[in-house]
Amino acid sequence: MKKITLLLSLFLASIFATLQSQSIATYDIVFTSTWNASEHTNAMDMSLPGNAHWSKLVGVNHNSDVDFFEVGQMATLGVELIAENGTNDVFRDTDVQNAIDALDAQQYINGPSLSTAAGTITITGLEVNQDFPLLTLLSMVAPSPDWYIGLDGLNLLDASGNWKTSITIPMTFVYDAGTDSGSNYTSGNNDANLPISIFDMSNTIEPFNGNDIGFIEITLTNVLSVEDLNSIDAIKLFPNPSQGKVTITNTRDLETVEVYNILGRLVTRIQVQQNPTLELHLSHLSKGLYVVKMTDINTNTKTQKLILE
């Protein structure tokens, strides 16, 4: 009996430790392009194309059960279309959505494009759940036959399971999707009769001869624990006093909001859809003092006085 009790205690401790470790990290991502004619052209063509630019920086955060592109593997249609013409609809709606449906990915990442060869693309406030800590990003080298830069499943957690605070990844090569037979920036789209697997155009392959084409910086800006997310005390209601429009934040685990008048009569009841923010529209109520009762999915409650003026 003592052995069973000990095993149960160890099991519960393990579960508690796992729950304690869960968190959501917020990151800012900056891709800095240094694409230029002196380092990224060949002897036959010493200039970049006049419309040199980058397609939207898109991607997904996911777990280790799925991979979106990999050297030595065939490109998906979604990756092919990004690499060949910079369109991301299939990647978003098929590659990423299938992974989300299979519970292997959290979200599609939709960053901006860059209209020039050199410059920066910035993604701010990306929230990453600890269940999906791997980061995949892609952007087309445009124009090009089927070339792109990217990150392939970069782990945002360190060996101890903590969020990495700062990461800088040099883009020392670009990827070739293996789906187009063109050999220079302005080659026409000539789909390869026999597509080959993805490879990196490093060192000996022109026009990319080992010179960095840019770098990606990833910076941790905030970490929010599950305890913060689930705490009924973290819920905030404002403004107060209010003229009728009231915002409630940190409502992910909130189930119901009830508003009572000074006589204790229920005047409004809202079933919450477990979104991070909730707006109450109470302008139809008379001016005066009310009590707002908030109940979460674990039946924890919080009450707060509200003045309508």
Automatic annotation (TrEMBL):
Keyword S-adenosyl-L-methionine: no
Organism of provenance: Lacinutrix iliipiscaria
Keyword presence, Aminoacyl-tRNA synthetase: no
Range of residues in the leader sequence: 1-19
Domain (Spondin): residue spans on this chain: 15-210
Keyword annotations from UniProtKB, A to Z: Signal
Protein name: Spondin domain-containing protein
A Pfam family that the UniProt record links to this protein: Spond_N
Lineage of the organism: Bacteria, Pseudomonadati, Bacteroidota, Flavobacteriia, Flavobacteriales
Highest taxon of the lineage: Bacteria
